Amino acid sequence: MQWNTSRFLVDLTNPQVMGIVNVTPDSFSDGGQHATTTAALRHCEELLQDGADILDIGGESTRPGARPLPLEEELARVLPVLREAVRLGVPVSVDTYKPKVMQAALDLGVDIINDIWALRWTEPNAAPTPMDGMQVVARHPGCGVCLMHMHREPLTMQVAPMAGDVVPQVLSFLQQIAQQLQGQGVQKSRIVIDPGIGFGKTVAQNFALLARQSELLSGGYPLLAGWSRKSSLAVVTGSSQEGVVASLAAHERMVPSVAAALLAVERGASIVRVHDVRETVQALQVLGAIRSPASS
Fold it and tell me: pTM of the predicted model, to two decimals?
């Protein structure tokens, strides 16, 4: 299986590690650490040295309770980083839901649009005609896209999480959006899906998505898993109670994050989006040795 992107044909035969670069002062895990262009680019280079296959660069925090960031501020944060990152020789993804940010990033040569809104968000009061992310992606000749499931929106998603069996709901939503995108002329080989761990789901629902991940693969789309440093991991490791701020700091959740990434890959995920690249790569190397043992 391969993922077609703007400049690269990404081979998904082996799991791909997407390194997270938050150009933000307020992300839940590493806000402020890479908030300048220089610091963000330095982090990009460090992630590549650690073994990242893809860089995912975002300028707006979408943690639970986060408020929307003005368009101009997001552009000012991400465009200088993206302009340099596309020269690093690997696929570059922009983590955004705003159509104008998507278009500006693609104009710089960015390879992938990674959208928590699954291309549904339309800028209010856009003139002369409102434009959504689906139009931006459909007009591009070859960019890759990751469609994520999110219940409600970041400000309210954990106030009233989903109800019922989430697996068929998530699958139905992602298949519907992916089919709409193909109806606009986008090849299936450009599309990856993401169940949206932590985006409007309870702890139990998040782990149901992992336990039954094979059901999400039934549509034939590669799956990206984003478990890195999520609060659900702190809950099951006993460091917090659901609905209470975790006592285990986000940057201390490396071990359960790597375990979740490994389990996701074992259950068919093609890409894992992570903060702790080196440790995840090492764990996947162990898995690879089991899957393809060296001949004696």
Answer: 0.91
Q: Does 296 reside within a domain?
A: no
Distance CA 226, CA 98 (A): 20
- Annotated active-site residue in 77, 190, 273, 278: 273
Active-site residue, 83 included: no
Return the H-helix or E-strand segment holding 224.
Answer: strand 224-225
Dihedral pair phi/psi, residue 139, rounded to 5°: -80, -20
Known catalytic residue: 273?
A: yes
Catalytic residue among 190, 230, 253, 278: 230
* Residue 135 domain-assigned (yes or no): yes
- Transcribe 136-161 into DSSP letters: HHHHSSS-EEEEE--SS-TTTTTTS-
Residue 129, domain CATH? 3.20.20.20
Greatest alpha-carbon pair distance for the chain in Å reads 67
In a domain, 136, yes or no: yes
Angle at 30 between CA 24 and CA 36, to 5 degrees: 40
Q: Round the average pLDDT of the chain to a whole number and report it.
A: 91
| Tally of structural domains, the chain | 1
| Nearby residues of 222 by Cβ (< 8 Å), 6 or more positions away | 1, 3, 12, 192, 193, 270, 271
Q: Which domain does 59 fall in, by range?
A: 2-291
With left for phi above 0 and alpha for psi between -120 and 50, is residue 185 left, alpha or beta? Answer: left
Pairing of strands 9-11, 2-4: antiparallel
- Positive or negative torsion for Cα 289, 45, 58, 184: negative
Q: Is residue 218 part of a domain?
A: yes
Q: What is the mean pLDDT of residues 2-9?
A: 98
Band (242; pLDDT cuts 50, 70, 90): low
Burial class (CB in 10 A: 0-12, 13-18, 19+), 20: buried
